[in-house]
Write a sequence for this structure.
């Protein structure tokens, strides 16, 4: 049945309405003339709807005159009628064809270059290297061998371990994986002690080599010995065979982690008015300009009160004066600021204090308890004393001399 419908659509057919008092005679004459009709629908005793092929429709006029019925064309369907309509609208067909060609050409070009995975390497350096290889916006995608680009960029950037390049529509996506520095090697041949690098109360001590000289619960000061790398004769007999130094001491490389409870008191300044990050994201729209008229624009609902609008007109082909341009409209979220409550200001002050401590210590700390006391403020900036009780590693290596 579906194939029959397609066949009728290809040949073309007419939907007609017949009105009169001699409809039965009209139908009998159609059968006698061996004319094919289908989808006959009786609206009333004096009105019917039916479908007839384009070629048979011309013969209906002579039959209609014999039965004195009224014929009305309801609709014309099929490819022949579409062709006739388009034939009368040459400019429309030409414009549509030109539009399709332009869309095809635009979809074959590179319009965006996206780089992901860069942590230490400069993305602008990768862009410049791509430009040297001929890869830039407006170039045809088919010109480039992606595998060759990957290998070339890897050779140019020794700090990269992997590059994957692929196309996503008109976007060239470059995924970078940087090499990671191997962890520092431990010189197990150098005799060392483990000492405390700050005051605290020992919570946990893990000895991997050497002899612990403190226990959990002990109060230690900065510089105190925690794990000794100097063993007694009895301790040496229990372990593996060791060599003595020039003074007759038995020295090894002490190794371990010592976690202690520590305390900090620090004054910081915290703002009471901060930028609201929110959920708004940058929106980019692209459209085509033909002779100054904008077409193919995506219509997103953008609140102008929440965004700054920046427009850029880009020629499709730089070296020719053509009336075709690409219009890039970027909507950037407008900065919004909110006034924090006192609990939020104190929480922000705690974060500032922790960041400062971890930057100075070059270690992470785990907060157990904290208090924040507001000392003074000028309305916009609060000066706050932050007291912190934390857990952290206080072990540091010291070479035995």
């Amino acid at each position: 049945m579906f194939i029959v419908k397609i066949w009728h659509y290809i040949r073309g057919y007419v939907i007609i309405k017949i009105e009169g008092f001699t409809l039965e005679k009209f139908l009998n004459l159609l059968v006698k003339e061996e004319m094919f009709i289908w989808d006959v629908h009786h609206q009333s005793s004096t009105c019917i709807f039916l479908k007839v092929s384009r070629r048979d429709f011309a013969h209906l006029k002579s039959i209609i005159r014999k039965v004195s019925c009224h014929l009305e064309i309801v609709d014309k369907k099929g490819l022949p009628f579409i062709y006739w309509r388009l034939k009368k609208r040459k400019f429309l067909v030409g414009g549509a064809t030109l539009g399709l060609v332009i869309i095809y050409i635009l979809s074959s070009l590179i319009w965006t270059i996206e780089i992901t995975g860069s942590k230490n390497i400069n993305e602008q350096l990768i862009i410049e290297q791509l430009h040297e290889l001929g890869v830039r916006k407006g170039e045809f995608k088919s010109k480039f061998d992606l595998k060759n680009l990957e290998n070339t960029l890897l050779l140019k950037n020794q700090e990269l371990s992997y590059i994957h390049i692929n196309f996503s529509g008109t976007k060239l996506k470059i995924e970078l994986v940087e090499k990671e520095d191997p962890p520092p090697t431990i010189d197990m041949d150098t005799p060392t002690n483990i000492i405390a690098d700050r005051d605290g109360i020992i919570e946990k001590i893990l000895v991997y080599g050497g002899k612990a000289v403190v226990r959990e619960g002990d109060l230690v000061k900065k510089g105190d010995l925690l794990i000794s790398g100097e063993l007694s004769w009895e301790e040496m007999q229990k372990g593996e065979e060791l060599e003595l130094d020039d003074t007759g001491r038995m020295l090894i490389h002490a190794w371990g982690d010592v976690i202690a409870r520590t305390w900090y008191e620090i004054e910081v300044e915290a703002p009471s008015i901060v930028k609201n990050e929110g959920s708004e994201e940058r929106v980019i729209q692209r459209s085509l300009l033909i002779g100054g008229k904008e077409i193919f624009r995506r219509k997103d609902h953008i609140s102008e009160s929440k965004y700054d609008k920046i427009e850029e007109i880009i020629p499709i082909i730089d070296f020719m004066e053509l009336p075709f341009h690409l219009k890039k409209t970027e909507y950037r979220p407008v900065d919004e600021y909110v006034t924090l409550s006192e609990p939020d200001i104190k929480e922000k002050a705690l974060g500032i204090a922790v960041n400062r401590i971890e930057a100075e210590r070059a270690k992470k700390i785990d907060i157990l308890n904290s208090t924040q006391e507001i000392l003074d403020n000028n309305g916009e900036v609060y000066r706050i004393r932050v007291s912190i009780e934390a857990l952290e590693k206080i072990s540091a290596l010291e070479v035995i001399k």
Notes: The longest strand covers residues 255-271. The two ends are 98 Å apart (CA to CA). Residues 240-244 have pLDDT under 50 and may be disordered.
